[in-house]
What we know:
By secondary structure, the protein is mainly α. Helix content is 80%, strand content 0%. α2 (15-48) packs across α7 (144-174) and α3 crosses α5 (102-127). It comes from Rhizobium croatiense.
Amino acid sequence: MASLELLGFGSTGWGALLIFAALMTLAVTATALAIGAVLGAIVAGAKLSGNPLFVALGNVYTTVFRGVPELLIIYLIYFGGSSAVTSIGKAMGYEGFLGLPSFAAGALAVGIISGAYQAEVFRGAFLAISKGELEAASAIGMHGGMRFRRIIIPQVLRFAIPGLGNVWQLSLKDSALISVTGLAELMRTSQVAAGSTRQYFLFFIAGGCLYLILTSLSDRIFNGAERRANRSMPASAMGQA
């Protein structure tokens, strides 16, 4: 009974804080995915460009940020970014330590990691586009910009949805590592609640259940998006797929 009161929404309950922390986890993950999408698209374009320098730079990015532990990247972004901001502040006459905001540092770090995976997702999706579609678009007089807007982007997004769903789940779990920066996301709040009440099993199980709820809902959303994209695809393209 006392355990249920601790998880309640009253003055002594942690329920509202855990729900807020879950929403914070979603916010930081969505921001990270958006950052990663921009970086991933740029890196995928570099790797598909055929330019040896751009290809090499793209390969370095994806190799480094998929190979280095996520926690190390978060530490480098958070503490390295804080040191850089402090140095800039001192150059402008401000004395004292300037820390990088936890949300910004966490979203940027997870976004950089996500970008390395999204680059490969976008690259694979582009290579999955039927060459006949691109040739037909050129044959009917579509210029490069129109071909990119009407053929390449819709098809890449359609093929990328399953991979992006996996990247989202990965980023959602990586967001737990941001707790080291002090951001009150789900993992951090679960740790604080467990330490304050000495109910470690209760609050870590509660946090794990909330993560499962978030991942299950995410699966349903991405599966629905994939079905919708395939339903709206022309019959000829379905045959090619």
